[in-house]
Amino acid sequence: MTPIRHSGRRYPNKVLAKEYFALLDTVRSYDERLMTVNGWGITLSLAALGAGFQTGHAGLVLVAALSGAAFWALEAAFKQFEMGYYVRMREIEVQQSIQRSTETAGTAQSSFAPQIDWSWRNASLYFWGRLTPSMALPPPKRYHKEFGLMFPLLLHQVWLPHALSVMAGAVLFALGVIGRLPTHA
């Protein structure tokens, strides 16, 4: 089987390499969708918060809180779908790494096993100084419970923008219910 080349690198298994890069494109497309969901969620929530604050109408700030929660849940669902591809990407990384090590053992032949997901997993080791660029990254490992894919609702990149609008909307709604919602009308 002829190895595939991508960006000048030689991949030992052409089929797995094609699948890997197709998965990478799929994950990238999910990220684009997530940015759209994020933008709509923030826009709607801020517009409702602004209108509620401007008019002093507690129902509008409740809309901000509810829309923030809805977009938070929607973004978490999209993130969960996206994360489903990570397991297969990692499995391909492991398989390519194993194949590479067995094919190139004792030879001067150079091939490359993709490690995008694995290097993301190890990036914090570099940032915290436990690994240095001169140290070799350990070979990729399969996802296990200890690596576990996090519950996406609690990922900071998912909850941060939406939780702020949910909290602000809830606090302003509570103030509106007791008649203390500040207005600029």
Which percent range describes the beta-strand content? under 5%
The number of distinct helices, counting runs of at least 4 residues, comes to 4
Mean pLDDT over the full residue set? 82
- Side-by-side strand order of the widest sheet: 1-2
Level of helix content?
A: 55-70%
Q: Judging from the principal axes of the Cα atoms, what is the shape?
A: elongated
Secondary-structure-derived class: mainly alpha
**Total strand count, please?**
2
What does this structure look like?
The chain has 185 residues and is mainly α. The chain has one domain (10-177). Helix content is 66%, strand content 3%. A two-stranded antiparallel sheet has the order 1-2. The longest helix has 47 residues, at 58-104.
Task: List its salient traits.
two-stranded antiparallel ribbon, elongated, mainly alpha, 2 strands, 185 residues, 66% helix
Write the layout of secondary structure elements.
Layout lengths: L3 E3 L2 E3 L2 H42 L2 H47 L11 H12 L28 H22 L8
Antiparallel strand pairs: 1-2
Helix pairs in contact: 1-2, 1-4, 2-4
Q: Short description, anyone?
A:
The protein is elongated, with a radius of gyration of 23 Å.
